[in-house]
Write a structure and sequence with these properties.
heterodimer; A: mainly alpha; B: mainly alpha; four-stranded mixed sheet; two-stranded antiparallel ribbon; 8 strands; 61% helix; transmembrane (chain B); membrane (chain B); transmembrane helix (chain B); transmembrane (chain A); membrane (chain A)
Amino acid sequence: MTGPLLYARSRALPVTLAALAGTAVFALWAAHRMEMYLDPDRRVPIVALAPLLAAAMIGASLRTPSDELDRTAVRPWWPLRLGQLAGLTALAAALMSPAVLGHPDVFGPPALIRNTLGCTGVTAAAAVLLGARLSWLPAFGYVSAVYLGSSGVRGRAATVWAWPMQPGAQPGAWAAALGAFVVGGALYVVLGARPEGPRG
Amino acid sequence: MTSLPTVRTITGHPLRAETVRGFASWAGAAVVLTLGVLLAGSSPRWQGGWAETATELHNAQLIVVPLAAAAGCRQGGRERRRRTGELLTTAVRPPLARFLASALPVAVWVAVGQLLAVGLALLATWPYALGDRPHLALVPGDVVASASAVLAGHVVGRAVPSRLAAPLLAMAGYVGLGILAVSREGAGRHLNPAFPAGDDSVPLWWQSVAMAVWTAGLAAAAVLAYAARRRAGALLPLAAATTAGALLVLTGDGLWHTDPLARRQVCDTSVTPAVCVNARYAGLLPQVSKALSGVTGKLEGVRNVPVRWEDHLGAPRGGEAELPNLTPIGWSLVRGRLTDPVDFAWQSVAALSGHDECDEVPPRVYRTDEAVEHYLAPSPGEAYFDELSARGTPAQRAELQKRRAARARLAAMGDEERRDWLSAYFAAAGTCAGLNEVPTL
């Protein structure tokens, strides 16, 4: 195995792809169980939590098993890292969208894509700062806290800090999620995940 | 002599080293930060109400328990990641002591983090509190449940050699507890450490103890079954957990009863109608009295008005009108202040006429009600709706003319005449049966 294929194998991408597919199937099943055709607001749990799960899976794959060796490489790493992060994010969004088809202006595919971008961005930034193994923690803490804490909260600021819970057409939430993805993604693409020592 | 510091490090208790170094304190920080985001985001919903603060802190168990389990799970995989498992088996300490040395510090830090968040929330509520006293009955059960989740998660982390174990445990725990929390039936829901609590209800005193024994018993059974030399010892905590669980399930809805304070109200009887607010936020009475002072001033000497605006649990009794809803806080009551006294006064007047619940209100009565509201406490949206009607269809414009004429007639009456007319109006108010007796303007 050489080049991108070896890279994919070393980041456990087959397992990650399987986990993303599993997340999508779970989202689809939950969407049917919750009878969401009755009311688009019932999709909020899926729109907020499925991207969180997908981002945790993506975050776990951002590791490198041979950090010191990687740093001796002649070839630049950023194209491979960018391809991995962008590809997995796009794939996750594409796989999960069928679970929430329709109602694009409230809780439909746009909101789900936005949350996937935001959660992956936060997770990628966490992978740089904390390491890939713990990268799920900040996004899980933040999104689950906002999920419980933002109901009934109004105001312009809430559309930004409560971005995972906003309808799809909310510009403030898009700005926050895109900002998280751009910053987190750039950090990861440039720096790579924090090396995991024996203490991991 | 130079080796003295090294000697001291080695002889220190392993629990101390594990507690002050490594992941444990970070787990506590994660709990504080997560609760901080939740509490800061929802602060209008709980700040200023002791019962609401306690409810919010308890309902946060939905996040804290999975987070604690995932933190334990990560810590549990540590020896495998460091490849020190084999080395540790050569230690003279029994496996249970080795297990607890790495698991307990995380549990302690998670509990400390949660207690810190509880303390901060209580401090944040204190300056805005309007009555009542801090509700702490649920805190011990919650903290024990979180610490138990750490121990149970640690067992999972030791047993499952996967990177995805911790995030999956967190998500599965969150979704699972969430599904349990929304189920409204089945006695099993009382076993959920994150069951949703209500603002008006308080638990029996032993509920927290039974919940603590239930969660700690299950966790201790898992730990003993995994790490103890004599695994049969796991049966003892399992039996305790089963007993506590059976108590919780058998008592069922009886675990919760209405807060006696929520049934009481405090009243300002110096005005007519008297103004009452629930005893849970008794300190709000001066603000409510002030908001309604314009209305009570204009109603002085008017007969047949309701005795009081009530704010106890349940429907108004005979001769009472319902005070507009102050709870759930976060809408008309935020951080101990009425957000919109003008709107509050208008809603209070609308409750006096009692025609809101009638199926069909004749236009004549509707106009009369509206004119009385305009005189006593105009709606904040009145000018806006008048503007809409003025630009509407000819029928709407004609209706606006009639509304304005009715308001003008009431305003033009002499004080004595108006008191008599209002007395007649309130004699017919309060029931849908009296719609036809409402005097015309």
